[in-house]
C-alpha cells in the first residue's frame, strides 16, 4: 500500500513536469499546426541559463527561473518570426526537418558557449526540506513542482476561458482564416502563443531539472517523450495534455518501479497501443479545457 | 428491370444537422439525371454518400441489385460506380498521360506491376491517347498537370472518369471553372457518353442541365423537393421558393 | 527548340534508360575512383554504401510515397541482427546472410508499415518513433541472442563465392557493397517508374484521387513498405557482413533521424539523390565531427534549415536545375 502511494505520488510529480514543459508544445501544435521538435531545446536553453546564473554567478534561484524564462522567450520570438513562420501549413516532413535543424543548432551553440557537461541548478534551502504528506515524506521541491503544475493548468484555463486573448486564441485555433477576417491579428496571436509556449518550456525545464537532468543532449533525449505526450493528449488540448502526462507519467513510473530493466520497453509498447486506439489523441483536435 | 443504382431513404446527420434527409432515387440504364439545388443543399454530400466516402446514418444504396451500403469506396469503383470531383483532384507532378495510364492499369488490375513501365505497353498508350484525343487534350499528353490550365484539368477529370469504364457515373460540377471557349468540349463529351451509361450530373449551368438531362431532381436542405423533366422545372413553385427564397 | 523536338522524337523509355545508364556509370565511376583514391578508408566507404541502402529504402516510403517516418532504422537493424545472429549460429555464406537479412527487413517493413500506416500526421511520426525505440529496447534486453549493448562482434564470414576472402583491407567487402548498391539502385529506378511505383507517387500527391480510381491506399503502401524493408534489411545485413560487427546503433532513433536528414540533403524521390545525400553527409560527418561533435551539429542544423528554406529538392534538385538551365 505504501509502495502504491509512493509510486502514485512520484508519477504525479513526474507527470506535472512533463505537463509544464509540453503543454506549450500542444498549444502551438494545435494553433499553428506545426510539429515542433525543437520545443525541448527551449527547455534546455532555460536549464542552461538557470545553471549559469546559479552555479557560475551565484545568484538566487528565483532570479534564475525568471532569467531562464525571459531568455528563452528572447531567443524564441525572432525564430518564430524568421523561421517557423515559413513552415506553417507545409508538410510534416518539412516541419520535422526544419525543427530538427533548429534543435541541432541550439544544442551545438549551447554546448559551445556553456561547455558540454551535466548542468546542475542548486536549489534554495526552502526547496531542500522534507515534507510529511501523511503516507510518506517528499522533498519540498517535488511538492513545489506539483503545485506549479496545478498553477500552470489553472492559469492557462483562466487565460483561455476568461480573457480576451483566450477568445481570440480559440477562434484562431478553430479557423485561422475566419478569425483573420474578423479582424483578429493571427500573426500577433501566433507570436504571443509561441512566446508563452517557450516560456513554459523553459520554466518546466528549470524546475523539473531534478527529474529530467539538464545534459548536453537534453533536447534530443526528451524530444520523443514530448511528441508522444502531445500526440496522446491531442494537439491543442490542455485537458488532453494534462491527462496524457499523468497517464504516461504513471506508465513510465510504474514500469520503472516494478520492471526496472524493461521500463522503456513497456512504455513504448503502451504508447503504440494508445496511439493506435486514439489516433487523434485522447481529446480530439480542438482547443478545449 | 434495368435499374443500376437504387437509393432508398438515405439519411445523414452531421451533429444535429440533417445534411441528407430521406433521399430516394434510382438511375436506370441510360438515364441522364441532373441534380440541382442551391448552395449548401447537400448535393456533394449525396455524391459522397453514393460513392462511399461517407457512411449514411440510415437508408440503403444498391448497385446493380447488390447492396453496397457498407461497401468500401474502392470496391464500389471496381463495380463500375465512378465519380468526378467538384474541386479537381489530380497529381500535380505527374503528366496528363500518366493519369490516364494509371486509371487504365488500375481498371485492368495491372497496377501492381513492378517492372515494365506503361510506356512500353502499346495498348495502354493507345487507349490513353485515344481518350485524350476525344477531349482534344492529346497535345498536352506529356505536360505535367501543374502546368496546364484549370479548364484543361477539369477536362482531364472527365477523361479519367470515362477511362475507368463506368456503369454509373457521378459528375460533380464538371463544367465549373471551364472557360466558355472550352464549354463545347464538355458538352460534346457529355453528348458522346456511352448510351447505356447511367449518369448523375450536378451543375449550376441551367443551359447545360436542360440540354443534357432527361430528368431533374432538386435538392434543398438535404431533401428532394422536386423530381420531373427539365420542362416542368421552371413552373414549379417549390423550386422557385428554394432558389429565390420566395414564400411558396 | 532542338531540345523540344528531341523530346518528341525519342520515346520516354529510351530517355529513361539512357539516364539510368548514365547514373549507374556515375556510381561505378565514383566507386572505382574512391577505391584507388582512398585505399585506407575502404571499410568506411563500405559503411557509407550500406547506409545508402537504408536511405534509398527510406526514400521509397518517404520520398516516393509521402509517409513521414522517424523510425526507419527498424528495418536496417532487423537486417543487421538477422545476419549477425545467423552468422553466430553457423551460417557463414555471405550471400545467404544478405538474403536472410533482407527477408528479416521485409518482415520488419511489413510490421512497421501495418502499424505506421494506421496513423496520420503526428500520430504516424510517433508510432514510427515508438516502434524503433521498442525494437532497440527489445534488442538490448534480449542479450542472450543479440549480445545486448555489446552487440555481436567477430562474425566469421566465408569467402565470397568461395574465392574472395573478406580481407583486412576490406577490398572484397567494398566491391560486394558497390555491386549490391548498383544493382539495387537500377532496380529501384525501374520500380519507381513501373505502374506500382507510379501509383505510390500518386498516393503521395492525392490519396483521394487514387481511391476514386479504385486502388487501395493502405495495401499499396504496405507493399511498398515490404519492398522498402527488404532493401533496408539488405543494407543492414551488408554492414554486418562487411564489418563483421553488429551494434545497437543500427536500430536506433538517431540512425533513423540521420537517414532522414541524408535523404533530404540528397533530394527526395530520386534514388540517385539518396545516394548523393548519404555520401556527402557521412563524409562530412566523418571529417567534421571528429574535430568536435557540437560543431558538426551546428553545421548540420544550419544546412538543414537552409535546405528546407532554399533547396527543398536537395542536392539532386540543385544539380538538376543547373542542367535544365543549360538545356534552355
UniProtKB/TrEMBL annotation, chain A:
Superkingdom of the source? Bacteria
Q: Does the keyword Nucleotide-binding apply?
A: no
Compartment list? Cell membrane
Whose protein is this, by species? Tianweitania sediminis
| Major site of localization recorded for this protein | membrane
Q: Give the way it sits in the membrane.
A: Multi-pass membrane protein
Its lineage opens with: Bacteria, Pseudomonadati, Pseudomonadota, Alphaproteobacteria, Hyphomicrobiales
Instruction: Set out the biological process GO terms recorded for this chain's protein.
Output: amino acid transport
What stretches pass through the bilayer? Answer: 12-30, 37-55, 61-84, 96-114, 143-160, 187-207, 219-247, 259-278
Protein name, as recorded? Branched-chain amino acid ABC transporter permease
Q: Which GO terms describe its molecular function?
A: transmembrane transporter activity
The family database entries (PANTHER family) matched by this protein are listed as: ABC TRANSPORTER ATP-BINDING PROTEIN, BRANCHED-CHAIN AMINO ACID TRANSPORT SYSTEM PERMEASE PROTEIN LIVH
Cell membrane listed as a keyword: yes
Automatic annotation (TrEMBL), chain B:
UniProt keyword annotations, A-Z = ATP-binding, Nucleotide-binding, Transport
What SUPFAM superfamilies does this protein map onto? Answer: P-loop containing nucleoside triphosphate hydrolases
The protein's matches in SMART domains, at most eight in alphabetical order, are given as: AAA
List the signal peptide residues: none
- GO CC aspect terms: plasma membrane
A molecular function (GO) term:
ATP binding
ABC transporter domain location is 5-246
The record's annotation in Pfam families points to: ABC_tran, BCA_ABC_TP_C
Return the InterPro entries for the record: AAA+_ATPase, ABC_AA/LPS_Transport, ABC_transporter-like_ATP-bd, ABC_transporter-like_CS, BCA_ABC_TP_C, P-loop_NTPase
Q: Which protein family is it in?
A: Belongs to the ABC transporter superfamily.
**Which species is this UniProt entry from?**
Tianweitania sediminis
What PROSITE patterns does the database record attribute to this sequence? ABC_TRANSPORTER_1, ABC_TRANSPORTER_2
Q: Does the keyword Transport apply?
A: yes
Q: Does the keyword ATP-binding apply?
A: yes
Stated name of the protein: ABC transporter ATP-binding protein
UniProtKB/TrEMBL annotation, chain C:
Q: Which InterPro entries match?
A: ABC_transp_permease, LivM-like
GO MF = branched-chain amino acid transmembrane transporter activity
Its topology with respect to the membrane? Multi-pass membrane protein
Nucleus recorded as keyword: no
The protein's UniProt keywords, in alphabetical order, are: Cell membrane, Membrane, Transmembrane, Transmembrane helix
* Keyword check for Cell membrane: yes
User: Where's it found, cell-wise?
Assistant: Cell membrane
CDD domains the record matches: TM_PBP1_LivM_like
Q: Quote a single Gene Ontology cellular component term.
A: plasma membrane
What stretches pass through the bilayer?
Answer: 21-38, 95-117, 173-192, 213-239, 259-284, 296-319
Q: What is its main location?
A: membrane
PANTHER family in the cross-refs: ABC TRANSPORTER ATP-BINDING PROTEIN, HIGH-AFFINITY BRANCHED-CHAIN AMINO ACID TRANSPORT SYSTEM PERMEASE
Protein known as: Branched-chain amino acid ABC transporter permease
What is the protein's species of origin?
Tianweitania sediminis
Amino acid at each position: 500500500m505504501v509502495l502504491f502511494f509512493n509510486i502514485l505520488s512520484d508519477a504525479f510529480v513526474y507527470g506535472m513536469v512533463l505537463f509544464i514543459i509540453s503543454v506549450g508544445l500542444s498549444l502551438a501544435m494545435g494553433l499553428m499546426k506545426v510539429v515542433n521538435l525543437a520545443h525541448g531545446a527551449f527547455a534546455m536553453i532555460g536549464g542552461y541559463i538557470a545553471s549559469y546564473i546559479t552555479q557560475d554567478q551565484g545568484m538566487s534561484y528565483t532570479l534564475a527561473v525568471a532569467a531562464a524564462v525571459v531568455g528563452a522567450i528572447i531567443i524564441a520570438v525572432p525564430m518564430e518570426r524568421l523561421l517557423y513562420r515559413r513552415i506553417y501549413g507545409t508538410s510534416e516532413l518539412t516541419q520535422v526537418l526544419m525543427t530538427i535543424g533548429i534543435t541541432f543548432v541550439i544544442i551545438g551553440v549551447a554546448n559551445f558557449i556553456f561547455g558540454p557537461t551535466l548542468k546542475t541548478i542548486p536549489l534554495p534551502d526552502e526547496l531542500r526540506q522534507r515534507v510529511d504528506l501523511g503516507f510518506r515524506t517528499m522533498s519540498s521541491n517535488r511538492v513545489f513542482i506539483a503545485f506549479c503544475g496545478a498553477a500552470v493548468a489553472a492559469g492557462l484555463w483562466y487565460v483561455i476561458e476568461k480573457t480576451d486573448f483566450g477568445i481570440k486564441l480559440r477562434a484562431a485555433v478553430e479557423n485561422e482564416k475566419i478569425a483573420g477576417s474578423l479582424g483578429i491579428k493571427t500573426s500577433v496571436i501566433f507570436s504571443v502563443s509561441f512566446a508563452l509556449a517557450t516560456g513554459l518550456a523553459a520554466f518546466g525545464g528549470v524546475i523539473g531539472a531534478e527529474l529530467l537532468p539538464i545534459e548536453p543532449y537534453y533536447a534530443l533525449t526528451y524530444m520523443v517523450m514530448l511528441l508522444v505526450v502531445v500526440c496522446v493528449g491531442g494537439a491543442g488540448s490542455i485537458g488532453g495534455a494534462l491527462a496524457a502526462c499523468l497517464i504516461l507519467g504513471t506508465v513510465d513510473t510504474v514500469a520503472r518501479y516494478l520492471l526496472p530493466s524493461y521500463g522503456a520497453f513497456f512504455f513504448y509498447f503502451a504508447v503504440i497501443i494508445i496511439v493506435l486506439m486514439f489516433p487523434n489523441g485522447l481529446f480530439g483536435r480542438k482547443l478545449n479545457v | 428491370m434495368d435499374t443500376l443504382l437504387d437509393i432508398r431513404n438515405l439519411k445523414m446527420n452531421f451533429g444535429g444537422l440533417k445534411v441528407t434527409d430521406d433521399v430516394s432515387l434510382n438511375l436506370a440504364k441510360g438515364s441522364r439525371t441532373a441534380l440541382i439545388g442551391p448552395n449548401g443543399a447537400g448535393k456533394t454530400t449525396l455524391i459522397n454518400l453514393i460513392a462511399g466516402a461517407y457512411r449514411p446514418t440510415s437508408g440503403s444504396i444498391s448497385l446493380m441489385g447488390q447492396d453496397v451500403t457498407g461497401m468500401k469506396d474502392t470496391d464500389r469503383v471496381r463495380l463500375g460506380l465512378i465519380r468526378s470531383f467538384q474541386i479537381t483532384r489530380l497529381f500535380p507532378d505527374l503528366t496528363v498521360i500518366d493519369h490516364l495510364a494509371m486509371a487504365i492499369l488500375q481498371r485492368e488490375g495491372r497496377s501492381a506491376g513492378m517492372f515494365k513501365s506503361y510506356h512500353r505497353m502499346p495498348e495502354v498508350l493507345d487507349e490513353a491517347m485515344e481518350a485524350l484525343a476525344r477531349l482534344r487534350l492529346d497535345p498536352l499528353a506529356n505536360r505535367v498537370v501543374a502546368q496546364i490550365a484549370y479548364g484543361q484539368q477539369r477536362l482531364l477529370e472527365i477523361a479519367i472518369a470515362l477511362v475507368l469504364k463506368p456503369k454509373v457515373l457521378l459528375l460533380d460540377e464538371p463544367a465549373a471553372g471551364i472557360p466558355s471557349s472550352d464549354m463545347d468540349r464538355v458538352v460534346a463529351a457529355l453528348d458522346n457518353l456511352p448510351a447505356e451509361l447511367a449518369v448523375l450530373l450536378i451543375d449550376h449551368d441551367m443551359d447545360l442541365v436542360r440540354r443534357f438531362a432527361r430528368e431533374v431532381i432538386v435538392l434543398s436542405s438535404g431533401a428532394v423537393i422536386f423530381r420531373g423533366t427539365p420542362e416542368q422545372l421552371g413552373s414549379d413553385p417549390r423550386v422557385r421558393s428554394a432558389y429565390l427564397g420566395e414564400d411558396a | 527548340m532542338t531540345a523540344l523536338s528531341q523530346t518528341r522524337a525519342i520515346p520516354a523509355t529510351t530517355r529513361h534508360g539512357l539516364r539510368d545508364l548514365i547514373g549507374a556509370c556515375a556510381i561505378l565511376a565514383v566507386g572505382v575512383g574512391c577505391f584507388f583514391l582512398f585505399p585506407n578508408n575502404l571499410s568506411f566507404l563500405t559503411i557509407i554504401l550500406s547506409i545508402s541502402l537504408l536511405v534509398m529504402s527510406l526514400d521509397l516510403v518517404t520520398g516516393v510515397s509521402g509517409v513521414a517516418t522517424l523510425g526507419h532504422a527498424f528495418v536496417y537493424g532487423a537486417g543487421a541482427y538477422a545476419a549477425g545472429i545467423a552468422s553466430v549460429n553457423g551460417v557463414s555464406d555471405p550471400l545467404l546472410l544478405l538474403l536472410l537479412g533482407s527477408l528479416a527487413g521485409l518482415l520488419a517493413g511489413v510490421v512497421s508499415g501495418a502499424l505506421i500506416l494506421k496513423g496520420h500526421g503526428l500520430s504516424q511520426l510517433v508510432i514510427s518513433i515508438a516502434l524503433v525505440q521498442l525494437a532497440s529496447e527489445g534488442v538490448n534486453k534480449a542479450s542472450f541472442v543479440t549480445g545486448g549493448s555489446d552487440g555481436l562482434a567477430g562474425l566469421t564470414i566465408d569467402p565470397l563465392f568461395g574465392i574472395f576472402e573478406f580481407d583486412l583491407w576490406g577490398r572484397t567487402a567494398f566491391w560486394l557493397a558497390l555491386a549490391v548498391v548498383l544493382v539495387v539502385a537500377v532496380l529501384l529506378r525501374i520500380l519507381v517508374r513501373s505502374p506500382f511505383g507510379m501509383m505510390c507517387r500518386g498516393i503521395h500527391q492525392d490519396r483521394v484521387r487514387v481511391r476514386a480510381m479504385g486502388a487501395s491506399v493502405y495495401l499499396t503502401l504496405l507493399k511498398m513498405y515490404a519492398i522498402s524493408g527488404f532493401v533496408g534489411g539488405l543494407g543492414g545485413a551488408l554492414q554486418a557482413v562487411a564489418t563483421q560487427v553488429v551494434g545497437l546503433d543500427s536500430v536506433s532513433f538517431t540512425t533513423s533521424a540521420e537517414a532522414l536528414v541524408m535523404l533530404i540533403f540528397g533530394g527526395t524521390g530520386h534514388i540517385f539523390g539518396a545516394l548523393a545525400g548519404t555520401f556527402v553527409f557521412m563524409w562530412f560527418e566523418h571529417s567534421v565531427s571528429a574535430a568536435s561533435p557540437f560543431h558538426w551539429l551546428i553545421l548540420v542544423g544550419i544546412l538543414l534549415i537552409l535546405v528546407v528554406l532554399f533547396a527543398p529538392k536537395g542536392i539532386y534538385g540543385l544539380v538538376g536545375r543547373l542542367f535544365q538551365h543549360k538545356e534552355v
